[in-house]
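Thread: glutathione complex, take 2
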Amino acid sequence: MSGYKLYYFPVRAKGEIDRWAFSAAKIDFEDIRVNFGEEWRKEKESGRPPLGQMPFLVTPEGKILAQSGAIMKYIWKKAGLSPSDSFDEAVADMIHDGATDLRDLWLRTHFEKDEAAKETKMKEFLETTLPTRLEKYEALLKSKDEGKGFFLGAKLSYADISFVEFINSFSLMVKKQKDDGKPAPDLDELFKKFPLLDGHYKRVLDVPEIKAWVEKRPPSDV
Ligand SMILES: N[C@@H](CCC(=O)N[C@@H](CS)C(=O)NCC(=O)O)C(=O)O
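Output below.
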């Protein structure tokens, strides 16, 4: 074992990009799933999580790091996979930060307690925000190798992980909504409008280590 320990709740949400990054970087890790409630309360009160939140990473040397994005980039760098060009690295950060904005907005919308507000926010997200942003991501992908590879070109980067993991998690949540008999958008229709992103999504999920992780990970609703 490499000695890396990743602590997060038993959900995908904010921690899953780190699990994908470890998998794609071929670094094994202990996927420690802390239960909501008592188990997390004790962990938080111990003062160990640097920002009082999860995910957080404990390195083999015992160093501790929080923030899902910082952890993902650290893993990528440790594996020697970081973009060598500083502008490319900034582009990868831009794509990751944009995906984080979408993820946070989606999660806030999904967990909105006021039903009327939820309906309004859901409509805005699905009909305006998401398609508008996807159009931008489609163009970004096209700008490198006509969109036949990854966001930075031929090589997979953490930008691909962050963006595709968001789309995957979002799609699974929408599917669950549909399975539960709740109104759910037709994502096949939506993605037909973005053929390059659609191909990219399949390409990233086909990376053997990501595919293997997705097949073996414990299921969760979020
Ligand atoms: N920006 C942070 C957000 C972390 C975060 O919001 N963590 C939440 C779970 S998703 C948490 O630890 N909540 C429990 C608490 O604050 O007590 C990241 O990406 O890691």
